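dumping this here before i forget
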Amino acid sequence: MTDLYYAGTDLGCTMDHGCTCFRIWAPNATNVTVNLYDSDQALLPMRRIPMSSDVDGTWVCREEVPEHTYYTYMVDNRETQDPYSKAVGCNGRRSMVVDLAKTNPEGFDVDHGPALSNPGDAIICEISILDATGDVSSKAKHRGKYLGLCEGGLVSDTGVPCGLDYFKALGVTHLQLMPVYDFGSIDESRDVIAHPQEYNWGYDPVNYMTPEGSFATDPHDGSVRIREFKSLVQAFHSAGIGVIMDVVFNHTYSLDFCFQKTAPDYFYRKDGDVYSDGSACGNEVASDRPMVRKYILDCLTYWMQEFHLDGYRFDLMGCLDLETMQIVNDTLHRIKPDVLLYGEGWLGGDSVLPEEKRATKANLHTIDGIGAFSDDIRDGIRGHVFTDDAIGFVGGAADCENNIRFSVAGACPHPQVDYKAYTYSPKGAWATTPNRVINYASCHDNMTLWDRLCSTRKDATHEEQLAMNRLAAAIVFTSQGIPFFLHGEEILRSKDFCDNSFNQPLSMNAISYDLTEDQEAMLRYYRGLIAFRKSTPQLHLSDGDAVKKELHFLSTEGLPSVVAYTLRGYLVVYNASPDTVQLPAPVDGTYTAYIQGSMAGDTPLASSTYHAGDSIPIAGISCFVARMEG
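structure:
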């Protein structure tokens, strides 16, 4: 394995005063040429340019090459696109010479995302370009495209705002985009709307530095996808919504990756002759190798600076090493101090990376800044994801109260959580501050929340199932940490009980905006939860010690399936039992409700006066939140 390291910033194709420089890292190659094509589909190159061996394992050539020329490298006898491609043609097979300044929409030079003083202020909605715009009810002119998502003024037949206006009305602070880098699982030459069987989530990286072409109006012109994705980011920034990119550095689409052709086996971890597979996708990226680490940093830095992204979500982050993630955190925070960085704190399989070096949730306390998804709260609320009949707290499972307390405290140490009884995370509290914890009940993986509740509680009435959905959401939005939800959870999204719809037709995945009364009611409830959380700084604690000192759980002895706590003048109660319960008032005063029954918001719903010990009725399967004033 080579130890050559190139520290320069000019890998790939760069343009300077009419001269185009091509530089590639291919440390073991004996001969490298640049092949120039006049289109992304041309059968033969119009010109071949020999490259010269240069410093630290790189090869270089400088020529006058016009914009929109397509190119590949021939590394010995292997033809490949540029690993540092900024623009590519259809399906990413050929790179393209591009002047990035010409891809900026008007005003993009002053574009920026919303300021975030505390990560706990974020409210994140995970979306798919295709899911959000693919259904005819979205009314988008550009269905399934970047431009479709940022169209304004769209309204469904049932009066629901669509596109950009949907998320403005919802009130979220950030969108997390499912893969928008160039991936290999959709044929970009076939429009997904016309060929809905082409659908795929896109967790199959091919070109890490270029936007996906199937979401562009022209996948053959490499500059179009860049300009249109920038337009999407700019539109959401103008609406005060940040944009987070889902990145997949744990594996590549296949071993037929451009780095494998330029530096064979350097990009991947191996166990002897076998490729390590911590991703459960057939390969695993060697993030701890110097030039791989550089590549990851260069990709993240490029997207943030060129496209003005506000954060990153790391897929199967446990496959990445802690040292790399610490450098990622330090580097990106220097560029954007309020950048949001978090990931899945686990792996998909076994890895040769030593356990103590993995960026898992159990190890994140050893580094700064990086957050992780809390599978604790997900499974505590709805039942263990890999146990089909587990019902969780909101389904009425017994003895779940301690599990909910663990998550309400933001996975931080708390004196009223019994860690000896808490077995989900064997080492107990894994966070030191709640603003590094991502709380959620549903994401793109596994069943939607509504499908899960309906499948595990078939015996429940429809009204009880709706109440479970509301209670699940209320727990996420009133716990310490950063709330996160999958687009469609707020409108009872169903995928026909499909556990993972990554390659199912668009018809299963696309969001319909023609809502029923139940869906409209749930949407109002989520809007209310979001409004309440945004107006209540007590829910955004940024210090683990503050959680211990200021959040106090109340005794609920004799009240099974009830969790209650007070926090800086607020009373929060979760009742997962089907019956109304009587909770003793903790203090004398007026209790003004903001979340009660099927209603939620940042304006008062009702007020009642109680003396300490008086009974406060809490409806079955509901959340109650009230401001207490003496």
